[in-house]
Amino acid sequence: MPVSGPWPARARGRRTTIQPLFGIPQARRRRAERTRSGNERLLRAWLADPEEHRRAVCERAELLQPLIFLLSRATALQLMDWGVQPRALIGHSLGEYVAVCVAGAVRLREALLLVQERGRLEDDKAPIGAMLVAELTWEEAQAYECVDDRNGADAWVSRAGNNSRRHVLFSGGRGAVAQLEQRLAKDGVRYQRLPNRKANHTPMMEAAAQPLARLARLIEWSEPVLPVYSTVGGARLGRDRLAEPGYWVSHSILPVRFADALDAARCDAGCQVFLEVGPPAGLAGLAGHHLRRTTLSLRWRRSQGAAKRSSGGYC
């Protein structure tokens, strides 16, 4: 049961679904309320009136990432309460924080603090960037990379994720990504610009990622009670790997190896059916394309007008 949530714009406008998840059952709402932060008042205001506070929340990773985390976790736990028991968990980008929490490897409060700090550092320290996804193999995509330190971060674009056998993420400076779009169009390669405003999963995130090590070192990690497959290297995660502070630094800097994690879950855990949990991000389609297996995605209801405003890209 992959746990997802990679694209920030995907959380916009899910009012009719989010409110029941935080209110039913009441025990789950009380658990969420115990994870308080300085941003709690604004997040509560967003839940009450997402249209009024949409911009304030959606343009700040410090607010949006914890919201996606809580929504995805609440959805996964509700499904488990209903008897849908996962054989393994995979999380794409931010979703890996959800996966390890659902698997019992970290307490909710500590996981949420780590996610909030991740978002704050991204807001404060990561340079402006852009991302897109292209229909290329991982090997074909290498020819489109451009790493030129002489001209600054805006000239940098590199592979940022191996999503399936023919879906690769690119990330870099806005100027470099714009040039990449021109090259892809000239070569007849289908692509889609994503709503991300940072160069996620590239070395451009290093200033934002390195401080995570200090907080990760203070967290008490446990052995996961459910198999979790890493999208850093594709292998099954254990307590020792999770407890390495450098792992969470690498998680923000290195490409997302989603396809490798899918392969490992199929071969190691015997997974045949994959369910996407969290705000829709196209992961079910990626898994189905990559593995040629049955995939399912929850149907999310949107508040009025949200479909027009949501700018999430395809994968």
Can you describe this structure?
There is one protein chain. The protein has helices at residues 15-23, 26-33, 40-48, 50-58, 61-81, 95-102, 108-125, 138-141, 174-186, 206-209, 212-218, 239-242, 245-253, 258-269, 283-291, 306-309; strands spanning 89-90, 130-134, 157-164, 167-172, 191-193, 228-229, 273-276, 294-297. The protein is an alpha/beta fold and 315 residues long. It folds into two domains: 8-126 and 205-309, Malonyl-Coenzyme A Acyl Carrier Protein, domain 2 (3-Layer(aba) Sandwich), CATH 3.40.366.10; 130-199, Alpha-Beta Plaits (2-Layer Sandwich), CATH 3.30.70.250. The strands form three sheets. The chain has a four-stranded antiparallel sheet. α5 packs parallel to α6 (95-102). The protein is globular and about 50 Å long.
